[in-house]
């Protein structure tokens, strides 16, 4: 049996999405900017996709900019806002952001801007008083993720946006993991910018979007064309834009299922693992968490070894261990939460999607305990 | 996924010689949970002085487990003189090669063997005996160890050194020191001579005050970064008694943090006569 429980890394492309994209490779390959029928035929599908993405977010279509990926959206939001503001800015982010946010923030710090990285507590939550303290000194540009990719922990971004706007600042959120799993509606918040990525919601890799609230000033990252309302140069990636639009419409239709069926599968998996594997802990808040994600630390064993054994029996998951990340240190997210090294190297993430089934959960629950037992049998840290 | 050879995957999936020998002739324990891999090696000699049995316990990734398994297979039947000629490259070769970023797994094996043989010969503690100056404080890698991997593997720049022994792989503050070691091994630069410091003599009270100041300014910040802390318990003559707290209290690396960070700083800033001990 093959079980894909790594949907926070990437998702299978929905068959409906592939179907929607194919005509734009085969027949409708025109450039939407062209003044002839070939171009005219693809203008409307791009507009439709923009409306589909906007509808999912509760935004106006004119507020959606298509990008190549979530990383580009994050870079554009953060660097674009800083450049548009001019002068030395104060940036605020959290220690548990994705590198697509952390790296541009740190780069801007090297360029002379101020940067504050907010700490999280052992549950993975921010202390909003820290943010208030910074905002009391003046406006700032904030980038905080809606939901964490490793633990699934949800930040109170709407509340943060209210604080930031009251202080005259700008609020960006990396919602790459939240869109399609949670009710993400920009009308209910004061968020200025929001990043999303196609391949996390059953569209292909290579397409993303940035929501920019009307009136928010952002300097484009890519100069060289009038496309996307002058906010991002480059000929529109028509098939992928169409695919993203279709995927957004689909996830909107399945949102309730994420909260109910997918969450129930995740809970069954979590309970099963905790019941069958001793010395195991769940990382991050259990309640304010994505419905599809569980991050579990198996003490005294190392994550990469778990992943290879799981892969041998057809199961895909991911780990915050040093070896699995290709670096020498365990995940910055897990460490920022103060998880001790004894558990950090054995942290394993299972992330589900609407394509997963109960039979798959039960298969993992049958395969996993002997793997953990085998690795613990050879671990020098297990007390015998 | 890493490009592991079939032999690596075989030794990972079916590790040979897992466990501990009940009454071993030599024990070698290296690495730590904090570092992400650790290996405990035990061996038994026959009356002719050949390794008749070897067993291991490993905490680590697929290649760490495979390297440990390979090591135990390689040393069986060898005399200690033969076994101690095995270097990390031999372990990697036995497995048909390791990804460059995973070479430190083979070094872990060689280190465990070295410590186990030393344990047999001298009865020294089975914990890794760290000699010389610690260069990388994040992973506890000494100058001697870095010199060894640079020589054994003909390394020419800092990144491969990190791949082979982890030094420089976390905060990166020691990268210049690593580069200096490489340069020295390559014969491009002589070892810098230590500069003797002249200090005025201190009264007991001044000494304690200076020790406290040094701990506050020079030592605590570094330990706290890793979730640890230190407390001054007593000063008896030139013996400084301290207690490690937080993460440091359970960390194997902390045992030499005491010597190489705390003691070194106190010698530098207070008096070269000071020794540091952990309060019982």
At the fourth level of CATH, the homologous superfamily of the largest domain in chain A is Type I PLP-dependent aspartate aminotransferase-like (Major domain)
Low-confidence stretches of chain A: none
What's the number of domains of chain A? 2
| Strand percentage of chain B | 15-25%
Question: How would you characterize this protein structure?
Answer:
The complex is a heterodimer of chains A (384) and B (280). With 384 residues, chain A is α/β, with parallel strands linked by helices. Chain A has 13 helices and 13 strands. Chain A folds into 2 domains: 3-9 and 254-377, Aspartate Aminotransferase, domain 1, CATH 3.90.1150.10; 15-250, Aspartate Aminotransferase, domain 2. Chain A has helices spanning 15-21, 23-26, 37-57, 70-85, 99-110, 128-135, 157-166, 238-276, 303-312, 322-325, 332-336, 341-344, 358-377, and strands at residues 3-4, 64-67, 90-94, 114-118, 141-143, 170-174, 193-197, 208-212, 280-282, 293-298, 315-316, 318-319, 347-351. In chain A, strands 2-8-7-6-5-3-4 form a 7-stranded mixed beta sheet, with helices on both faces. In chain A, strands 9-10-13-12 form a 4-stranded antiparallel beta sheet, covered by helices on one side. In chain A, strands 1-11 form a two-stranded parallel ribbon. In chain A, helix 8 crosses helix 13. The radius of gyration of chain A is 21 Å and the shape is globular. By secondary structure, chain B is of the alpha+beta class. Chain B folds into 3 domains: 6-122, Alpha-Beta Complex (Sufe protein. Chain: A), CATH 3.90.1010; 134-185, Orthogonal Bundle (Arc Repressor Mutant, subunit A); 204-278, GMP Synthetase, Chain A, domain 3 (2-Layer Sandwich), CATH 3.30.300.130. The longest helix of chain B is centred in the C-terminal third of the chain and has 22 residues, at 204-225. Chain B is globular, with a radius of gyration of 21 Å. The model of chain B has no long low-confidence stretch (mean pLDDT 85). The interface between A and B is medium-sized, with 29 and 34 residues.
């Amino acid at each position: 049996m093959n079980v894909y429980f790594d949907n926070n890394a990437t998702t299978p492309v929905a068959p409906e999405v592939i179907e929607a994209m194919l005509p734009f490779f085969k027949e409708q390959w025109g450039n939407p900017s062209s003044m002839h029928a070939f171009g005219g035929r693809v203008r409307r599908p791009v507009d439709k996709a923009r409306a589909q993405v906007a509808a999912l977010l509760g935004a106006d279509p004119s507020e959606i900019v298509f990008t190549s990926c979530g990383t580009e959206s994050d870079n554009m939001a953060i660097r674009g806002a800083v450049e548009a503001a001019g002068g030395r800015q104060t940036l605020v982010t959290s220690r548990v952001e994705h590198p697509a946010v952390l790296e541009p923030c740190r780069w801007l710090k090297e360029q002379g801007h101020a940067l504050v990285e907010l700490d999280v507590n052992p549950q993975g939550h921010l202390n909003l008083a820290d943010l208030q303290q910074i905002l009391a000194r003046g406006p700032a540009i904030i980038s905080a993720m809606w939901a964490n990719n490793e633990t699934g922990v949800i930040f109170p971004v709407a509340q943060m946006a209210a604080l930031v706007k009251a202080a005259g600042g700008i609020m960006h959120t990396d919602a790459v993991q939240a869109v399609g799993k949670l009710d993400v509606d920009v009308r209910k918040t004061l968020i200025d910018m929001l990043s999303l990525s196609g391949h996390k919601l059953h569209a292909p890799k290579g397409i993303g979007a940035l929501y920019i609230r009307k009136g928010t000033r952002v300097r484009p990252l890519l100069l060289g064309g009038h496309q996307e309302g002058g906010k991002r140069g480059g000929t529109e990636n028509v098939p992928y834009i169409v695919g993203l639009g279709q995927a957004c419409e689909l996830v909107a239709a399945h949102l309730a299922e994420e909260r109910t069926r997918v969450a129930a599968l995740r809970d069954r998996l979590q309970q099963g693992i905790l019941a069958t594997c001793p010395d195991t802990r769940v990382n991050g808040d259990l309640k304010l968490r994505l419905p599809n994600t569980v991050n579990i630390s198996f003490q005294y064993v190392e994550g990469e070894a778990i992943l290879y054994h799981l892969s041998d029996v057809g199961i895909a998951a991911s780990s915050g261990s040093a070896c699995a990340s290709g670096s020498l240190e365990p995940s910055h997210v897990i460490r920022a939460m103060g998880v001790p090294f004894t558990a950090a190297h054995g942290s394993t993430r299972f992330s589900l999607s609407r394509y997963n089934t109960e039979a798959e959960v039960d298969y993992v629950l049958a395969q996993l305990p002997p793997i953990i037992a085998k690795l613990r049998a050879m671990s020098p840290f297990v007390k015998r | 996924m890493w490009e592991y050879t079939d032999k690596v995957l075989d030794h990972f999936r079916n590790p040979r010689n897992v466990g501990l020998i009940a009454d071993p002739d030599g024990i070698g324990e290296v690495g730590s949970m904090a570092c992400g891999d650790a290996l405990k090696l035990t061996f038994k000699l026959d009356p002719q002085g050949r390794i008749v049995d070897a067993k291991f316990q490993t905490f680590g990734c697929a290649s760490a487990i495979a390297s440990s398994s390979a090591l135990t297979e390689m040393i069986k039947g060898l005399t200690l003189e033969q076994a101690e000629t095995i270097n990390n490259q031999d372990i990697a070769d036995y497995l048909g090669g390791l990804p460059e970023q995973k070479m430190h797994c083979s070094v872990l094996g060689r280190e465990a063997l070295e410590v186990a043989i030393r344990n047999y010969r001298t009865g020294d503690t089975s914990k890794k005996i760290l000699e010389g100056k610690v260069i990388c404080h994040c992973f506890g890698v000494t100058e001697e160890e870095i010199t060894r991997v640079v020589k054994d593997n003909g390394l020419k720049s800092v990144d491969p050194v990190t791949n082979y022994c982890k030094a420089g792989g976390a905060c990166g503050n020691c990268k210049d020191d690593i580069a200096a070691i490489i340069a020295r091994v390559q014969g491009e630069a002589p070892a810098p001579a230590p500069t003797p410091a002249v200090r005025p003599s201190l009264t007991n009270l001044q000494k304690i005050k200076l020790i406290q100041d040094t701990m506050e300014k020079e030592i605590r910040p570094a330990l706290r970064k890793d979730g640890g802390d230190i407390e001054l318990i007593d000063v008896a003559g030139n013996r400084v008694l301290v207690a490690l707290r937080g993460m440091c209290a359970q960390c194997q690396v902390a045992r030499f943090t005491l010597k190489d960070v705390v003691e070194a700083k106190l010698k530098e800033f207070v008096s070269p006569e000071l020794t540091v001990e952990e309060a019982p």
